[in-house]
Amino acid sequence: MNAAVADFHTYKLIGAGLAAMGMIGAGIGLGVLFGNYLQAAIRNPAGAASQQTMLFLGMALTETMGLFAFVVSLLILFGV
Amino acid sequence: MAEQPAIDPMHQFMIHKIVQGPVFQLGGLTVDMSITNSVASMLAAAVMLVVFFALTARGEVVPNRAQALVEALYNIVDRVLVTPIIGHGGRAYIPYLFTLFMVILTLNLMGVVLAVGNVAGLSLTFTVTSQLAITATLAVLTFFSVFILGFIKHGPKFLTLFASSGMPPALLIFMVPIEMISYFVRPLTLAMRLFGNMLGGHVVMSLFGSFVVALGILALSGGVATLAFVPSALSFTLIVGLTGLELVVAILQAFVFAALATVYLNEVVNFGHGH
C-alpha cells in the first residue's frame, strides 16, 4: 500500500467516524421525546395511552435523522 | 495464542446463491432467477404467512387461541392506527396496511428469532429487511400507491397538497418547493428507517458476539490475559439484553412502517378537510 492510498484509507475511516456523529442529535431528540412523554404521562395518566401512537410516530421521524448519519457513514466505509 | 477469528459484522448480510436458476436478458437487463438466501427467506416467510392465515382466519364468534392471536394483530392495525388516524373512510385500506404490517413483522422476527440457527455458522436465516432493495421496494410501492390514489380520488386538485391554505401568496414560491421535497423524500426515509434499524441492530449484536469469542480466546492464553474473561462475560450479558431489544425493535418497526403508511393515506382520504 503506497502512502497516498494509506492516507485515503485513513481519511475514509475518520470521515466515517465524523459522519456517525450525526447520530448524537437523534439521541438527544429521542431523549427529549420520551422524557417529555413520560412527564406528560405522569401528570395526566388518563391521557397517556391515547397518545402512544403519536409517540411512536415521533420516535420514527426523529430516529430517521440519526439513521441518515448512519447510512452516510456506511456509504463512506463501504460505498466510496 | 490461538488464531483469532476475523471480526466481520457485515458478513451476515451477504447474499449468496443456493440454487442456480436460469439467467436471461430482458430489455438489456440481466435477470438472474437464482434462489439466493434472501429469496429463500422470503419464500419461507410467504409460506409461514399463508399457513398462519389459513389456520387462524376463521371468523367464529367465540375465537379459539389462534384466532384470538390474529385478531389481536388485526386490532393493532384497525383500532390503534386506522380508526383513530383516518376514521371510517380508512376501512377500505386495512387489507393493504395489515398485509404490509404482517409481512414486515414476519421478516423482521425471522431475522431475530431464527438467528439461533446461525450460531454454529450454518447461516440458516437471513434478515431480509436489512437489504435496502427490499425495504425500498416496500416503501416505493406504498408511497406511489398512495400518491396515485390521491389523483384517482381528487384529480389534479390533489396538487394543492403542496400549498397549505391560508398562506400569503408571496411565501408560496418558497413553500411549495420545500413541501414538495419533504413529500417526495418520504419513500427514502421509509426505506432507510427499516433498513437502518435492522442493519444497525444486527451489526451491534454480531459485534458483541465476536467480542465474546475473541476475548474468550485471548483469556485462554493464560497469565494476565485471563482477566479478559470479565469483558467477555459482560459482552455475553449484553447480547441477552440486545436480543430482547431487537425483538422490540422488530415489532416496533413493523408498527411504525404501517403507522406512517396510515398517516400518508390519511392525507389522501381526508384531503381538503382538517389540516
What's the arrangement of secondary structure elements?
The complex is a heterodimer of chains A (80) and B (275).
Chain A: H1 3-20, H2 23-43, H3 45-48, H4 52-79
Helix pairs in contact in A: 1-4, 2-4
Chain B: E1 17-19, E2 23-26, E3 29-32, E4 35-36, H1 37-56, H2 65-85, H3 94-113, H4 132-154, H5 169-184, H6 186-220, H7 229-269
Antiparallel strand pairs in B: 1-4, 2-3
Describe the model:
- The complex is a heterodimer of chains A (80) and B (275).
- Chain A is mostly helical.
- Chain A has a domain at 26-80: F1F0 ATP synthase subunit C (F1FO ATP Synthase), CATH 1.20.20.10.
- In chain A, 89% of the residues lie in helices and 0% in strands.
- Chain A is built from four helices and no strands.
- By secondary structure, chain B is mostly helical.
- In chain B, a hairpin with a 2-residue loop joins β2 (23-26) and β3.
- Chain A binds chain B through residues 50, 53, 56-57, 59-61, 63-64, 67-68, 70-71, 74, 78, and chain B through 10, 80-81, 84-85, 189, 192-193, 195-197, 199-200, 252, 255-256, 259-260, 263.
The DSSP helix count of chain B reads 7
Order of helix and strand elements from N to C terminus of chain B:
EEEEHHHHHHH
What is the domain tally of chain B?
Answer: 1
How many E strands of chain A? 0
Morphology call of chain A:
rod-shaped
How many β strands of chain B by DSSP?
A: 4
